[in-house]
UniProtKB/TrEMBL annotation:
Keywords: Membrane, Transmembrane, Transmembrane helix. Its main location: membrane. This is RDD domain-containing protein. Residues 28-131 form the RDD domain. InterPro entries: RDD. It comes from Streptococcus sanguinis SK355. It is found in: Membrane. The chain crosses the membrane at residues 26-45, 99-118. It is a multi-pass membrane protein. It comes from the Bacteria. One of its GO terms (cellular component) is membrane.
Length: 142
């Protein structure tokens, strides 16, 4: 009987890297959530993200600063990061904490959506904490 040895070498990396949970968490955060948080903070601080400009919207600040823009973006992307943390943790150890983290991410996302849909001023937690509001251009300021 012939035995075939499966080649595990990866053409690009040479081999499949093995990461600890902490390394995986750091890699996911530093290559996805952090760059997008910074990019969106900068865009919103300047003239608004491409989608806002295309839709004729603007981000109005009570106190316009890059720090407020970073705070808004960090809060806005927090549910996404929480989902990453839960998903990565479940790959290493499917425990109650990984389920709690993933569920919390979904609940936070739902809260953000419902607040944006149901509040008269359409503000979600990130807007409330950062002192911002998305408005139509040429609308009365905050």
């Amino acid at each position: 009987m012939l035995k075939m040895k499966l080649k595990t070498d990866n053409l690009v990396l040479g081999d499949i890297p093995v990461f600890t949970e902490a390394q995986s968490q750091l890699l996911a955060f530093s290559t996805s959530v952090l760059p997008l948080t910074i990019i969106f903070a900068w865009l919103d601080y300047r003239k608004g993200s491409f989608g806002k400009r295309w839709a004729g919207l603007q981000l109005v600040y009570k106190r316009r600063s890059l720090a407020h823009s970073l705070l808004r973006s960090a809060i806005k992307f927090f549910p996404w990061q929480l989902g990453h943390i839960g998903a990565i943790r479940s790959a290493y150890q499917a425990d109650a904490l990984s389920i709690f983290l993933s569920t919390s991410a979904g609940i936070l996302l739902l809260i953000f959506l419902l607040m944006g849909l149901l509040r008269k001023d359409k503000r979600h937690p990130a807007d409330l904490l950062a002192g911002t509001q998305v408005q139509l251009k040429h609308q009365k300021q905050l």
